[in-house]
Amino acid sequence: MWREPMWYCKQTMKVIPLGTSSGKPTVKRSVSALAVAREAEWLLFDCGEGAQVQIARAGLSPSRLSAIFITHLHGDHFNGLPGLLSTMGLDRRTRDLKLTGPPGIRDYLDVLERLRVMFVNYSVVVRELSSLPDSKVVHETAEYTVTAMALDHRLFAIGYRLDELPRPGRFNVERARELGVPEGKLWGRLQAGEEVRLPDGKVVRSSDVLGPARPGKSVSYCLDTRPCAMTVELARNVDLLIHEATYTDEFAAEAQQYGHSTAAQAARTARDAGARRLLITHFSTRFPDAAPLLDEARAIFPNTVLAEDLVEIEV
Ligand SMILES: [Zn+2]
Ligand SMILES: [Zn+2]
Questions:
Q1: What is the model's pTM?
Q2: How many H helices and E strands in the chain?
Q3: For residues 121 and 72, which has the higher predicted lDDT (pLDDT)?
Q4: For the residues of 131-195, what is the DSSP string, one character each?
C-alpha cells in the first residue's frame, strides 16, 4: 500500500538540552550541549564535558550525528569533544563528521591527535569561522540550512540558526483517486511537483492533488552572549529561540562584565525578534533552583520554557 513518506505527513523536530549549567557541572545539570533531532539524524550544538554520557541517556545514536557546531572556546562548551569523537572511532564510524566552530578548534583537535589522546579513524571536516560581520550559511542540506553570526561575548563567540526549507503541501489521496491517477509511480511524480499524463491522455497537475506548501521549522542557538542586535537578527520570527540566561537581573552588572545575559534580557531579545517561543539555559550555579530565572523571563515574554537536562521539547 502506498504511504506518505515520514517527512511528508509529520514534522518531527525536537530539541534536547543535554547540559544546562554554565561554567561547571552540578549534580543536577551538565554543562552546555544541545541536540536538535530530525527524522533520521541529529545535530549537536556545543559539546561540554560529559556530553557523550548525556547523549547516551537521551537515547541518541552517535552514528546518526551529522554535524557539530561549537559556539566558542570556553571549556564548558567544547571539552566533551575528545571523548565523543573517540567513542565514535571505537564504534567504527565511517561517515564524515562536519564540525564548525571558532578559530583554534582545528589546532585543538590536531594536538589531541598528535598526543594520542584521541583516536579518530573517520574524517572530521573542520570549518573555522574567523569573522562574521554578517550572517553566513555554514551548513546546507536539501532539507535545511544553518546560518552563523558573531555574538557579543568575552571572546569570539558564534550564534547559529537552523531553518528548514518549506515542505510540499499535503498529498490528497482521495482527490488523486477521483482524478483516476493509478497508485504508484505517478503519485510520486505528482508529489515531486511534476504534472503527469494518464493512460487516457488526461493531464493531472501537481497542484490538483497537493495542498499549499507548509513552512519549515526554525531554531536559533545564542550562547554565550550579552544582549545585542545580532541575537535579535538571528532570532527573527524563529519558532524556538534557545538563549542563555546565566543570571537574574539582580546580577546585571556581572552579566555585562562577563559577557552574559540575564533572564530578562533573553526575554526582551525573544520579544524584540518576534520569536514564537523562548528556551532559556546556561544557568549560573548560583541558582540551584532556576525558578526565579523563569519567573523573570515570563514577566516579559510569557512563552518561555526553562531548559532541564534531557527534557525534550518539540519545535
Ligand atoms: Zn558558557
Ligand atoms: Zn563563555
A1: 0.89
A2: 12, 16
A3: 72
A4: --SS-EEEEE-SSEEEEEEE--SSS--EEEEEEEPPBPPPB-HHHHHHTTPPSSHHHHHHHTT--
To the query of whether residue 76 is one of the catalytic residues in this protein, the response is yes
The label of the residue with cell 483516476 reads: 180
What pLDDT band is residue 135 in, cutting at 50, 70 and 90?
confident
Taking the centre of ligand 2 as the mean of its atom positions, its distance from the CA of residue 283, in whole angstroms, is: 12
Beta bridge partners, 314, equal 14
CA separation for the pair 107, 185 (Å, rounded): 50
Instruction: Look up residue 53 and give its amino acid.
Output: V
62, 50, 55: which is closest to 17 by C-alpha?
55
Q: pLDDT digit string (tens) for 152-172?
A: 999 999 999 999 998 878 889
From 46, 76, 224, 309, active-site residue? 76
Find the 274 Cα to ligand 2 centroid distance in Å: 25
Ligand 2 mean position, distance from CA 121 (Å): 30
Handedness of CA 133, 31, 126, 313 (dihedral sign): negative
* 102 C-beta neighbours (distance < 10 Å), count: 21
pLDDT category, 7, cuts 50, 70, 90? very low
